Amino acid sequence: MFGFRKRGSGVQGITYGVMDGVLTCLGVIMGLSAAGNKFFLLLAVLAVGLADALADSAAFHVGQETETHHQKREIRKSTVLTFIGVFGGFLVLGIPILFLELSTAILVSGVMGMAILAGLGYTVASINPKHKKSRLMWEYVAMGIFVSVVTYFVGRLVVGLGV
Q1: Its pTM surpasses 0.70
Q2: What average pLDDT does the segment 37-60 reach?
Q3: Residue 4 resides in a domain
Q4: How many domains are contained in the chain?
Q5: How confident is the model at residue 42 (pLDDT cuts 50, 70, 90)?
Q6: Is the per-residue pLDDT at 83 higher than 90?
Q7: Do the domain assignments include residue 3?
Q8: Which domain holds residue 108?
Q9: What would you measure as the largest C-alpha separation in the chain, in angstroms?
Q10: Are 58 and 124 in contact (CB under 8 A)?
Q11: How confident is the model over 87-133, as pLDDT tens digits?
């Protein structure tokens, strides 16, 4: 499916990137939503998204260089796809913040994030048939819910402390 079954396709880079981008962006949105500032939240999504995409793609690149079975072209492709997956996740989930009222944007971004994670689970299970689609979809959504809940309460805690 999607041409990702063959070696060197970059599937690890794009799936890693999407998972990281969506989970990290959900954490930023839910954690910083406690501040109640739409401009600050949008700025954080863009800045953290770019920094995370650059750092993760560099780390993924180094990780693949440590493995002896990857060719240079394959490593470059995975590096670029990791960047696209991470930053793309941030951009997609950041769009509602730009156009909607803050509380609505947070809800829409959360729902979009869960839908992307479910789709990612379905895609990964389609690529690797040893995984059951519904189980992997729910597993990825559960990860998103966990990150969202934990970071939301940390944000509320920090705001409550008046730090």
Answers
A1: yes
A2: 95
A3: no
A4: 1
A5: very high
A6: yes
A7: no
A8: 11-161
A9: 53
A10: no
A11: 999 999 999 999 999 999 999 999 999 999 999 999 999 999 899 99
Question: Read out DSSP for the chain?
Answer: -TT-SSTTS-HHHHHHHHHHHHHHHHHHHHHHGGG--HHHHHHHHHHHHHHHHHHHHHHHHHHHHTSTT--HHHHHHHHHHHHHHHHHHHHHHHHHHHHS-HHHHHHHHHHHHHHHHHHHHHHHHHHSTTS-HHHHHHHHHHHHHHHHHHHHHHHHHHHHHT-
- The tokens describing 134, both together, are 């519904």
How is residue 101 written in tokens? 């009222």
Q: What is the residue-averaged pLDDT of the chain?
A: 91
> How far is residue 60 from each of residues 26, 34, 55, 119, 120, measured CA to CA in Å?
21, 32, 9, 22, 19
* Predicted local distance difference test score (pLDDT) of residue 69: 81
**pLDDT score of 7 more than 60:** no
Residue 96 included in any domain: yes
d(C-alpha 121, C-alpha 133), whole Å: 7
Give pLDDT, residue 1: 40
For 111-117, the CB contacts below 8 A with 24+ separation are 113/22, 113/25, 113/26, 113/144, 113/148, 114/141, 114/144, 114/145, 116/18, 116/22, 116/89, 116/92, 117/19, 117/22, 117/23, 117/141, 117/143, 117/144
